[in-house]
Amino acid sequence: MRRFFSSPVTKTMSSYAAARTAATGKNVWVEFIDLALKYKPANLGQGFPDFAPPTFLKQALARAAMIDSLNQYTRSKGHGRLVQAIAKYYSPLHKKEIDPMNNILVTVGAYGALYCGINSLVDSGDEVVVIEPFFDSYLPCIKAAGGIPKCVPLRPKSKEVLLSADLTLDPDELAAAFSSKTKAVLLNTPNNPTGKVFERKELEMIADLCKKHDAICVSDEVYEYLVYEGEHIRIATLPGMWERTLTIGSAGKAFSVTGWKIGWTIGPAELIAAAHSIMVNCNYTCATPLQEGVALAFEREWEQKGKNDSYFVELPSVLKEKRAEIVKMLNDVGMKPIIPQGGYFILADTAPLNVSFEGEDAYDFQFCRWLTKSKGIAAIPSSAFYSREHSHLAGKCVRFCFGKSESTLQAARARFEEWKKEF
Ligand SMILES: Cc1ncc(COP(=O)(O)O)c(C=O)c1O
Fold first, then answer.
1. What is the pLDDT of residues 227-255, one digit of tens each?
2. Would you state the pLDDT for residue 383?
3. Could you tell me the distance, in angstroms and rounded to a whole number, from the CA of residue 11 to the centre of ligand 1?
């Protein structure tokens, strides 16, 4: 038996940790959230909306909590009313009759969906193609499952990158990343952090490789409702892709309630059953009243579809204005923003500012620390969204979140104005 507290202690406590815990590495959020708590900057760092969620959603949750039975465990794969509502809403979007009982898994946020999906697919030594820059949980999740990430970066089409659409996949580089060992490919459209909305021909290229190498596509589409230019295309709707795609969504991102942590995966019954086998022994089920609340929100969206009252119509139009505001602020101080087609993040090149640092850490990390401490504005280093191998591609870019309340944007504007006076 291991003796934790009696001497002699032969191991440090950390040596009891399983090897897979080392796959997690350093988490960028820990440092930059602590920094924001300490310096109280205008927080354009972490990706959550700090404006009020829709009233109908808060009311739905309050009502759900008053119904006794909704305060107990619900169906493990997903609360009945929610899976019905998701199936109804997404069937036309997937051009397919989605079976609420077998084609949907509700999870603790999209994080949970990614974890269950990846762990249900990846065996030790399997390779997973990951398009980068990527949401930072992808690599630790793949590695903890014993998988080997094969990262393929988006590359600039030309020398100057003005729009997220100027970042693209090199077809040969992508094809070379696939092999007989490839189990899955991880795609994120609209992409965090670039805001790129993948075009049909890019998705076709990924789909063809999946089919050729018999790989599954895990498609993270949490920003599906935040598209300003281009069209959100679900890779699952391309020929031959429904059978091999897990499509991930998030109520946190769709309805601006990131604290609710309700996500879902839509896919073929066998893959959903496998993902559920991971989830059932981890969470067993997700919070019932929250699922009921999200169900009511989807039912409302169904009735308001395409109308001005629809949250999925209102949110992108509000965010498009916020995007214009942040672009102006960044341009005014001399940064070079890369205008995103979707999502609520924007990358900006800080190189034209000529700020120099002496430390050995990556430039963008030092810049973000300096920006928070000296200028009172929080941003996130973009190299955190790259593999170590390709982190140099981040250059001097940092990521700002513009999915923020008017008061946060106003505070940021004031601090940018203050900074401008120094020039
Ligand atoms: C691309 C992407 N995927 C997944 C998530 C996690 O979403 P959730 O909060 O629903 O777990 C995030 C959160 O920022 C994200 O940006």
1. 999 999 999 999 999 999 999 999 999 99
2. 95
3. 36
Which residue's entry shows tokens 């591609």? 393
Question: Which protein residue's CA is at the shortest distance from atom 14 of ligand 1?
Answer: 47
Percent of the chain clearing pLDDT 90 (strictly above)? 90
Q: What angle do CA 55, 103, 94 make, to 5 degrees?
A: 75
Report the mean per-residue pLDDT for the chain.
Answer: 95
Q: Which of 222, 247, 345 for a ligand 1 pocket mutation test, highest count of atoms within 8 Å of Cβ? A: 222
Ligand 1 atom, smallest distance to 343 CA: 16
Give the distance (Å) from ligand 1 centre to CA of residue 258: 9
From ligand 1's centre to the CA of 222, what distance in Å?
Answer: 6
The pTM of the whole model exceeds 0.85: yes
Q: What DSSP letter does each residue of 250-272 carry, written as one string?
A: EHHHHTT-GGG-EEEEE--HHHH
Centre of ligand 1 from the C-alpha of residue 114, in Å: 9
* Cβ-contact 104, 98 below 8 angstroms: yes
pLDDT at 1: 42
Pairing of strands 345-349, 148-153: unpaired
Q: What pLDDT sits at residue 27?
A: 79
- Predicted confidence at residue 168, as pLDDT, reads 97
Distance between CA 197 and CA 343 in Å, rounded?
A: 9
- C-alpha 79 to ligand 1 mean position (Å): 21
> How far is Cα 209 from Cα 343, in angstroms, rounded to an integer?
26
Dihedral angle computed from the Cα positions of residues 26, 117, 252 and 269, in that order, rounded to the nearest 10 degrees: 180
CB 134 less than 6 A from any atom of ligand 1 = no
Cα–Cα distance, 140 to 119 (Å, whole number):
12
Domains in the chain, CATH or no CATH each: 20-53+311-420 (3.90.1150.10), 55-304 (3.40.640.10)
